[in-house]
Each structure stands twice: as structure tokens, then as C-alpha cells.
Specification:
This protein has about 120 residues and is mainly α. It is built from 8 helices and no strands. Helix 4 runs antiparallel to helix 5, helix 4 packs parallel to helix 8 and helix 5 packs antiparallel against helix 8. The relative contact order is 0.13. The mean pLDDT is about 85.
Length: about 120
């Protein structure tokens, strides 16, 4: 695997001769980037489905995916940080993306289906 998903190698590059605090911060950032790298596919799906839904004229519906993201971040923050600590913080964005995808994908498919039906009616 590469450094983005594995998170190793950052200390070798930037951590030599640094204080323990600096190395700890680099370890934390490497962990965060590793967690982010594993879930970028969901951010891609989320972005595409939001843009398609907006482009079809259903921009009001895309607001609710943002609400789903906010709720998921709150659930992770209040429900899991106490138990899992920094690891839960690292996965808060990813949980938000997945939650928003659970709303955005079906909504996008519905909007596409409805738009196709409208196009067929006009012909």
C-alpha cells in the first residue's frame, strides 16, 4: 500500500531530530490521513450524486444530505469519542460521507427517474 492509506513514512521524512511532541503530531496526522484515504471513494459518490441532483433542478433535496452529514458527525462526536478517542475523530468525516450517501444515492436515482419520465412526456 502507499503512504496515504498506510500512514507510514511520514516520521521518516519529517520526524528526524524533532521533539516527541512533533513526532506525536505527525503520527496523529498520519493516522488521520490513513483513515481519510480509505474512504475517498464515498466522497466521490457523494459529490457526483449531489451535483446530478442539483443539476436536474432538485437543489432543495441536496440540503438534506448536508443535514445527514451533520447528524452523523454529531453522533460520532457525542457517542464514540468518549469510548474510542482520537480514532473516532479520525472517522467522523467518513461516517458523515457514508450517512449522506445513504440519502443522496437513492434521492439521485429518484430524481433521474423522474426527469426521464418528464422528458418522455414532452415527446
Amino acid at each position: 500500500m502507499n503512504n496515504l492509506t498506510e500512514g507510514k513514512g511520514y516520521n521518516d521524512i519529517y520526524g528526524k531530530g524533532k521533539s516527541a511532541e512533533a513526532v506525536g503530531a505527525l503520527d496523529a496526522s498520519a493516522k488521520y490521513l490513513s483513515c481519510m484515504g480509505l474512504f475517498y471513494w464515498s466522497l466521490g459518490i457523494l459529490t457526483v450524486t449531489r451535483m446530478v441532483t442539483q443539476g436536474l433542478g432538485y437543489s432543495g433535496r441536496t440540503v438534506f444530505s448536508g443535514v445527514a452529514e451533520m447528524v452523523a458527525r454529531a453522533v460520532v462526536s457525542f457517542g464514540f469519542v468518549g469510548t474510542f478517542g482520537y480514532t473516532a475523530i479520525c472517522f467522523a468525516d467518513q461516517a458523515a460521507w457514508i450517512a449522506a450517501c445513504c440519502y443522496s444515492v437513492p434521492t439521485c436515482l429518484w430524481c433521474v427517474k423522474k426527469s426521464i419520465a418528464k422528458l418522455k412526456q414532452t415527446k
